[in-house]
Amino acid sequence: MDAARGGAHPRVNCDVVPSHRLACRSPGLHDREVFPDVMSPGVDALLEQARAGLRRLTPHETVEAVRAGALLIDTRTDGQRREQGDLPGAIVIDRTVLEWRLDPASAWRIPEATGYDREIVVVCRQGFSSSLAAASLQVLGLRAATDMVGGVEAWRQAGLPMSDGPADVRY
């Protein structure tokens, strides 16, 4: 996709492969010749580590999980939701408060955060930040937290329906 039209990140090259997984490369972002003093393994390594603990779902698997009782959590920005539309049955939670809203022990939790075994599927625009968010939820003890491969862009490409009603926003 063209970055000027709101598509993929301009420095990340991603391809959807037949297994419904994204193959991404970010060349040069952590090049030791460009950034010789950087000791960080980089965001790609962080993402890989986060995803290693997730059983990521395809859009169709996500629909089935929600039908079976999973929470569908949309962390996209207001602008992204205006541009792409809302997902049916999703609860919109700003990424900055996600852990507080979903931790069953938090005083600021949403009523649906009923236990640490509750299945949670986090969705973002393209399936990158949702992986980091789901991994963070697992660190809190929400072991059934995961995310959806490819984000809302993959949902739309799969031809799945968008919501007709207003979003269920929980800030």
From TrEMBL:
Pfam families: Rhodanese (PF00581). Keywords: Transferase. Residues 66-164 form the Rhodanese domain. GO terms for molecular function: transferase activity. It comes from the Bacteria. The keyword Methyltransferase does not apply. SMART domains: RHOD (SM00450). PANTHER family: RHODANESE-LIKE DOMAIN-CONTAINING PROTEIN 15, CHLOROPLASTIC. This is Rhodanese-related sulfurtransferase.
